């Protein structure tokens, strides 16, 4: 398969439009010489150890969950390890791609996988994603008669706005027409300028607030009402088993014990304090929180499980590998990095 083919599959699995505005996702390094994609390496973080692993296996594409290139560069030199990664990838002809928060947000993505490790339940999204389609405004106005209605519509069509709006014209008990129309955001100014030339239309114009439609099941963070409530201790055991960890960190909520009942769980993979802030749940699970964020959460009576940042994400790579295998031919080898690991360990 070509690189473009694989990128198309990745876009199907986790559309980049779902990524957070601050994120740096998608194709980050593209070699100048195109060649077939035969070996793909999956990693949570692209470190120098993982890069050398990729070079040794003659990898064609690295899919790194976290974007190794985030802040802009003014030069590519050997002093900075991330610049070294970019240079090494180009020298070896390896493309680098990062899905990051698009994979967090998508339905069936990392956060759904993470909350599924606690048990089945009724899952909802904490921060709803909305459609990336252009914002559509609804306008309501009145024209004096059928002649003016035709004039307004003709003027709109002259500037090609007619391609981007729909309208309804209702005639009440007088000669006047009440018009309701919609137009995309880029056309709004032009439409208003046209209507301003017609006194009654301008005076009666009402522009209703625009909003983008939600994308069901997509967005940052998840909250689950468990089908079968469990104890805090049982939740800890399930999280450790799901993530393949021998240890996690636990902060009990105020007046909570290991035997306290957990009926509602909220999760956010990685660093989830901003997403989980203020959420009503018996238990919050994330990779990391600051000391004071933990204090605020437990003071509200919510227990916290911290798994370390990448430990809350890495296990999903096996799921991603299976999904890619469904869409890619058997000739493409998809491997999990053996060098990728969380930089922190319990000693």
UniProtKB/TrEMBL annotation:
Q: Per the UniProt entry, what are the Gene Ontology biological process annotations, in alphabetical order?
A: regulation of DNA-templated transcription
Subcellular localization(s) per the UniProt record: Cytoplasm; Nucleus
Top-level taxon: Eukaryota
Q: Which UniProt keywords apply?
A: Acetylation, Cytoplasm, Metal-binding, Nucleus, Phosphoprotein
- Indicate where this protein is primarily found: cytoplasm
Q: Where does a divalent metal cation bind?
A: 66, 104, 309, 313
- List, alphabetically, the InterPro entries matched: DUF34/NIF3 (IPR002678), DUF34/NIF3_animal (IPR017222), DUF34/NIF3_sf (IPR036069)
Q: Does the keyword Acetylation apply?
A: yes
The yes or no answer to whether the keyword Nucleus is present is yes
What Pfam families does the record point to?
DUF34_NIF3
> What are the GO cellular component annotations?
mitochondrion; nucleus
NCBIfam families cross-referenced by the UniProt entry: YbgI_SA1388 (TIGR00486)
PANTHER family given for it?
NGG1 INTERACTING FACTOR 3 (PTHR13799), NIF3-LIKE PROTEIN 1 (PTHR13799:SF13)
Question: Can you state the subunit structure given in the record?
Answer: Homodimer. Interacts with COPS2. Interacts with THOC7.
Q: What is the protein name stated in its UniProt record?
A: NIF3-like protein 1
